[in-house]
Amino acid sequence: MTINERKKGSENTGNSELVSPFFTIDVASEMTAATTTLYPDYPTPDERLHMTPEEIHSWKERGGLTSDLFPQLPVIMEHPNYLRGVAKGTALIDDGTIDFSDLEFTPSSHPGGYSRDERGIPVRPFDELFLQKGALGGMGFYRTYGPNLTADPVVFREQDGVLQVIGINRGDSGIRALPGGMQDPNEPGISTAVRELFEEAGVDLSDVPSQIVHQGIVWSDTRSTRNAWPESTVVLLLPPQDKAGVLVPVAGSDAKHAYWMDVNEENLADFMASHASFVKLSVLEWQKITGRKVLTNGKIA
Questions:
Q1: pLDDT at 272
Q2: How does DSSP classify residue 173?
Q3: What is the CA 107 to chain-centroid distance, rounded?
Q4: I want to staple 168 with a disulfide (CB 3.0 to 4.6 A). Which of 23, 187, 255, 292 is the partner?
Q5: Residue 109 neighbours by CB under 8 Å, 6+ apart
Q6: Cα–Cα distance between 92 and 94 in angstroms, integer?
Q7: What is the chain's alpha carbon radius of gyration, rounded to the nearest angstrom?
Q8: Which residues contact 52 (CB under 8 A, 6 or more apart)?
């Protein structure tokens, strides 16, 4: 975690027991940070193609063809997660020869949008940085090329002076994460967040205020490929404390476990992809709304 100001809690609160700094984050660093999240049978970072800036420049001079990039990597379109999407009829099927130039893909929330390759397939923004860090081609786990829209709900409560958040262990990998999932066609991001919270954690907060704290690319998700990536609407749901205090998460679809957990650096370090960043962004928003401060050990000052 990037801390911009490492002020001791005792200097800000008058309580000598509170020695952790307040939660602050450098959004740019957090969103581009490498992630250790790995998935069964999915290529690890070491198995991916890493290109130096010079190699990228040379490759672009030769035409910059997507088909030149990944001949040695496993065929991730044979992964069970993708095949389930095919079976459901929700995944785009590509035999490697189709021209997609006339097909309309989901627009990106990235200000510059995205380019397309030689077959009209979307190319992830900040492509050069992605290729340097190690990239895959194809759709990977995703249903289609380009942005795959998701939503992630964040729900806090105060318990014994500590801020807690609802988390789950994912059903596919067991990794700790926020509840969340794919948007249905024409479904608003906030509605997706509310629905996923109920489906994965058994908590219904359809009647409480909400605040969008992030809407954009999930930069540090290892499931991203050069041609398919997640873009999330992160929604802070704001139940009153008396309601939040009695909520009991129960694991539902796509979750092995659901629970309240303390918001501290140790717990957030175990979160998948950018989910720790999403919680931190939500903490900053919660602090603005409540006028209170949260320390990195989870205590509310």
A1: 84
A2: T
A3: 18
A4: 255
A5: 147, 215, 216, 217, 231
A6: 7
A7: 20
A8: 132
Handedness of CA 231, 25, 201, 171 (dihedral sign): positive
Per-residue pLDDT, averaged over 207-216, amounts to 95
pTM of the model: 0.81
CA distances for 75 relative to 37, 70, 79, 243, angstroms: 20, 9, 8, 47
Once rounded to an integer, what is the mean pLDDT over residues 111-133? 85
Mean of the pLDDT values across residues 266-281? Answer: 89
Token pair in block for residue 149: 């829209």
Phi, psi of 176 (to 5 degrees): -70, 140
CB 117 within 8 A of CB 98: no
Residue 1 banded pLDDT, cuts 50, 70, 90:
very low
Cβ-based neighbour number of residue 18 at 10 Å: 20
Which amino acid, residue 206? S
**DSSP 8-state symbol, 109:** S
Q: What is the pLDDT of residue 43?
A: 66
* 101 exposure class (CB count in 10 Å sphere: 0-12, 13-18, 19+): exposed
Q: Is the pLDDT of residue 2 over 50?
A: no
Question: Domains in the chain, please, with CATH?
Answer: 9-39+148-290 (3.90.79.10), 45-133 (no CATH)
List beta partners, residue 154.
Answer: 236
CB 248 within 8 A of CB 166: no
Q: Categorize the per-residue pLDDT at 198 as very low, low, confident or very high, splitting at 50, 70 and 90.
A: very high
135 vs 174: CA distance, rounded Å = 24
Please report where in the chains the tokens 């209170």 appear, as a residue: 292
